[in-house]
Structure formats: C-alpha cells, structure tokens
Fold this protein.
Amino acid sequence: DAVGKDGLFAFPTWKQGTMNRGGPADVLARRIVVTEGKSDNYNQNWKVKDGNPYAITNLQCEDLAYDDGSNPYFPDGLCLDTPINLSATVPDSAIATDTGDPALLPDLTFGGSTFAISDTSLILQGKNVLDPSKTKVLTWHSCPAEYDVSGADGLITPVSCEDDTRDDDDSTLADQTWYNPYEVAKGHRGFLDGDMVMVLYAWSPNWKLNSVGNDRYDLYIRRSFDGGESWTTTPDKGKDSEGVAYDGNGTTTCENYRSSVTGDSATVDEPQACYDDYKAGAAERPQRDAAQVHADHDAGPAVRHDRLAVRRQHHLRALRRRTAELRVVVQRFRCRRRGHP
C-alpha cells in the first residue's frame, strides 16, 4: 500500500552537520503523512486527485510558523520542529590521543532555552578552538532504549538510559547535530514497506581520527513498525503490509567500543558489551550494529534473526540493483554530453 495505517507516505532522510563536508554529521529524517482533508484522520486510500502528498502541509509538524500565509517565501508555512535524529549518540568517555589522559566531553545543559547549551562543545566554542581536536571517544550510549546490560568484558562500564540525565522522552532522537561534535554518520539508505521503515547508515564515533585512518565506520540499522513514530525491535502484535503477523520474541545485540590503544581492531582488544532482555516491540538501543552480522549468519549472541531478515535482504538486493542501473544511465548521459556515442 502507498500509505500505511499510521499515515506514512514518505520518509525523507538527509545528512546534516555544522562544518565542512566530511566533518561531524548526523542522519536526520522527517515524516510525511497524508490525512483526509483538514482532519487528523490518516488517508490510507490516497489518490493522485487528492493533491500533492509532499506538500509542506503534509509534513508532520507541531510548530509550523507562517501558517497564515504571511511569508511569501513560505506560503504554506515553515516547520520549526527538530527533525528525527537517527544517528545521534552521547559520548560517555574519551581520551586525548597526544597524552593518553581523560578528555573533556561536551557538558550539555537542558532547560531555559530552545536548545541545549554548552561551554565545552567544540562547535559551540567556534573560533576559540585553536588546535585540531585530539579527542578519541571510547564509549557512548543513545536513548530511549529498554534493555539489560550483560556480557560487558570488564574493560568498560556501559551507561544505560536509566543513568541518562535527560528527561526528554525522545532523548537522542531529538538531538541537534552540534550536540556531539565528534561523531559522523553518512551513506544512509533505506526502504518503506507500509508502516515499516528501515534505515541503515555508516557511523563512527570519531570523525577526525577516522579521516586519517585511525578509526572506522560500522554499519548500523534502525527499524520502525509504526511509520517512524518509534524505533523498536520486531513486535509481537500487528501485521505487515502483506497481512503477515509479526511474531517478535525479543533479541540481544552487542556493541564494540573503542580501545584507548590505537591500532588495528584485529590486534587490539576492543571493549564489548551486550544488551539483552529486549522485549518484542521494545525501544531498541536504538541503533543495531549490522557490521557484526557475517555472511554465514553466524553472528553469535549479537543478532537473533527474525522472519523479516529474508524480506530485508530482498529489498537491499533490489536497491543495489537499481543503483547499478542508475549509474549506467548517468554514465551514458555524460558520454553523450561529451560527444561520445
């Protein structure tokens, strides 16, 4: 179906950061929903005659400025809501790579202003930053999530959402891109299947070190089964767009953090923690490290495959095939512009 029962018609995503290309950035998104006229009822039977589904009026937005048509540049209004931040994390520990000493991390203060404020954020300091950052983030967390910590190897103490100081229900989903000036996310892809949204992207906790080969990207996945309203494990209630019932029974995921020793991950022992007791449909941590899934599907405790795995692989193969086809079309177009046959 073009529109799911939760009204989702499209889910535009983009990479956004405050610095130059290749600098710290996050993957952001917004929900485009279609309703019946001016009501709040979702229009699952949307037709072309019902108008432009991508109009600003169909953007899910609680703070819409100029909705009275007073601004000629934004005749239908301007959405001031913070986009959904799919890749944001909170750095928990770090070192200075030149000395090996613990590094100062951004200390955000919430409340009293539209956005969090900080006097220890590199980005918010702006021109006062005289030297390139030598900070290496070692551990991080993101919320909301409902899990128990198990399997921590003793090298780290993972931070749970219960220890998180924020009181925002959306937590890192509502973060601004400048809150964490160290991480970088890129290469986002995904697909929609009714109300199911799957987004994957490459992410690194240390963009500066990664730019010179001293860190790496891992591939992360996030899933929603209610049109992007929440991001969870496979639920045990409801049905997909083809009427197949979800039968999730919980899962366990693991995260590889960073060592204070710089070197190849094959030779350096990296701290790891596993997050289990995820219930079906529970808020997930919230990103799942798909780089731990091997081709033979022997991922140990990292992943318990569910019935949606085959469907995800089908969509990914179709996406790669379509991308290859588009590359051929672009190449032919360039050749013709240059006068080649």
Residues 31 and 79 are 12 Å apart (CA to CA). Residues 309-337 form the longest helix (29 residues). Confidence is low (pLDDT under 50) at residues 294-308. The radius of gyration is 22 Å.
